[in-house]
Design brief:
The chain has 547 residues and is an alpha+beta fold. It has 8 helices and 31 strands.
Length: 547
């Protein structure tokens, strides 16, 4: 009997036989073809030779996916990823969250100690399945039937290369460069740089000329630094890789005993779950400065604000109990005089939230935008991009570290123009494979905002010109229009972080970009990683010559 007839006959039988049918379909779709040395393309060709899945089954899988797959994130249709990634990586992981353990045992997915206890408390990996096995098989069959073989992306090889930034390299070099932060402070005119290593990480302080002022050994790498009257407040991640272990901290580095250099490190807030961003304001209006910290964690991260109780004591308050807290900034969003909070959550949630201050330390949480989990939120900016008096959102999506780092046509920059009351128009999309950080500034000093953007996951199967992009603002009238080009030396490092400032005080904004080179560049066969390991700078200062 042909497969199509078998399907139609079995659909009339009771649920036991329906489950057997779905298992057969899934076995055909998700197992190898019997030849152990068969490569992925041969598997794909074999699968193409199968008779199509019945439309009734596809419709049922579609409906079930829209029922279950929105419980944790925005709905993600099959066409956002190629078939082999759904099959080998995403669907098995999604199965884990519903209590189906295909590739690893449940206990292998949970960290030991306190971190594991937090994951168990959130019930990230349930002991028993949370949906019917037949329904899960149907969802998988639907995704595998409808997913494309590959994603089509546009090449950036034809982008123009311009020589309008003069590079300045720091004196000395950490091998290999593993930068976690570059931050320029206009008040002190200093560049702060952090590099992560297994045992001792380092916080470096540089002049814009590239001269090293001081190197400070720290137990973990810095994600954020702020200059305050009583010293440097440094957010230390604890661990660079994702973890729910509460080993991160917020520390104060100061100069004691009349010293000319920093010589004291004091932990102000401890037990943080891989904190990656921080901001400060008097949230409860009691006259002292409170703190809000984005703790990315892994599967049990959180966004919290810390009430200053005096005498270096802080009381924790939950803002958003969702893992993947990645960025936070303070702003008066409703112009009522109270400091509010904008917070971005990644790790599948991929949302930006507004935390509206209600007074007395109370906040109203409101989700203002969200993208599918495939997009990979990294950073955002909140500012008036089109000079209409209303702030807009520049959202950068390009994180590609969760599975095979293929180029994705929906990676890039999205500009959401504000309409007031935290409502936004449909976004203007600027594509950039693996986009990781974007900074708006008037680089050409023509009166409008251009955008500098870096990519940590460019398409290394080509020339990877999207590693550094300048989007020149050429708008006419009310319509925003940008024209991209790249800079000389775009592939001399693997750029993970960036900041801007007028380093040479000529009125033109400059850039500093940091390199992290230990990960293998997806799609490249030219030996570029070896070149990076030997020659990539820790960071590059780019002096604007666009005059």
């Amino acid at each position: 009997m042909k497969l199509i007839n078998l399907i139609m006959n079995l659909q009339q039988e009771k649920k036991t036989y329906f489950f057997i049918l779905l298992s057969i379909i899934t076995l055909i779709f998700f197992s190898c073809t019997g030849q152990q040395d068969q490569n992925q393309q041969q598997e794909s060709n074999t699968e193409k030779g199968l008779e199509p899945v019945p439309q009734e089954l596809i419709l049922q899988g579609n409906n079930l996916s829209r029922q279950y797959c929105v419980q944790c994130h925005l709905y993600t249709p099959p066409d956002l990823l190629p078939k082999h990634i759904w099959k080998n990586e995403v669907l098995p992981k999604m199965g884990n969250y519903h209590g189906f353990y295909q590739q690893k045992k449940r206990e292998e997915l949970i960290e030991k100690g306190i971190a594991g206890a937090k994951v168990l408390q959130r019930n990230v990996y349930p002991e028993q399945p949370t949906l019917d096995s037949a329904e899960w098989q149907t969802i998988q069959a639907f995704y595998f039937a409808k997913a494309p073989e590959i994603l089509e992306t546009a090449s950036t090889d034809d982008l123009p290369v311009k020589n309008i930034f003069q590079p300045v390299f720091p004196k000395g070099r950490i091998v290999p460069p593993m930068t976690t932060m570059v931050d320029f402070k206009e008040a002190s005119e200093l560049i702060y740089h952090s590099d992560v290593k297994k045992d001792v990480s380092v916080l470096n302080i540089y002049q814009p000329s590239g001269k090293l002022i001081q190197a400070i050994a720290m137990r973990s790498a810095a994600a954020k630094i702020d200059e305050k009257e009583d010293g440097l407040w440094v957010l230390n991640m604890g661990k660079f890789t994702s973890t729910d272990a509460p080993v991160g901290s917020l520390s104060r580095i100061s100069k004691r005993g009349g010293a000319s250099q920093y010589n004291s490190v004091e932990v102000m807030i401890d037990s943080l779950q891989r904190p990656v961003d921080v901001d400060y304001a008097d949230f409860d209006q009691d006259g002292d400065e409170d703190v809000v910290i984005a703790q990315f964690g892994n599967w049990a991260g959180i966004m919290e604000w810390f009430e200053n109780k005096g005498d270096k004591q802080y009381e924790r308050h939950t803002l958003i109990p969702i893992t993947g807290a990645e960025e936070v900034m303070v702003d008066d969003l409703n112009t009522d005089g109270l400091p509010d909070i904008l917070a971005m959550i990644a790790q599948g949630e991929e949302s930006i939230f507004a935390c509206i201050n209600q007074g007395n330390g109370r906040f109203q949480i409101r989700k203002i935008l969200q993208v599918p989990p495939t997009h990979g939120s990294v950073t955002f900016e909140y500012l008036d991009l089109n000079s209409d008096g209303i702030k807009d959102i520049l959202h950068v999506t390009g994180d590609n570290a969760d599975y095979e780092a293929i180029p994705k046509p929906y990676h890039g920059l999205r500009i959401y123009l504000g309409k007031g009351d935290l409502k936004f128009e449909a976004p203007l999309f600027l594509p950039q494979n693996g986009a990781y950080k974007a900074i708006p500034a008037d680089f050409d000093q023509d009166g409008d905002l251009d955008i500098a953007s870096i990519s940590f996951f460019p398409d290394y199967s080509g020339q990877a010109k999207e590693s550094i992009l300048i989007f020149e603002n050429v708008s006419v009238g009310d319509k925003l229009t940008f024209v991209p080009f790249t800079l000389e030396g775009y592939k001399s490092g693997r750029w993970i972080t960036m900041d801007s400032g007028d380093f040479d005080e000529d009125g033109y904004p400059d850039l500093v970009i940091g390199s992290f080179v230990v990960q293998n560049p997806y799609g490249n066969q030219s030996g570029i990683k070896k070149e990076w390991m030997e020659h990539s700078p820790m960071f590059v200062i780019l002096i604007n010559q666009w005059k």
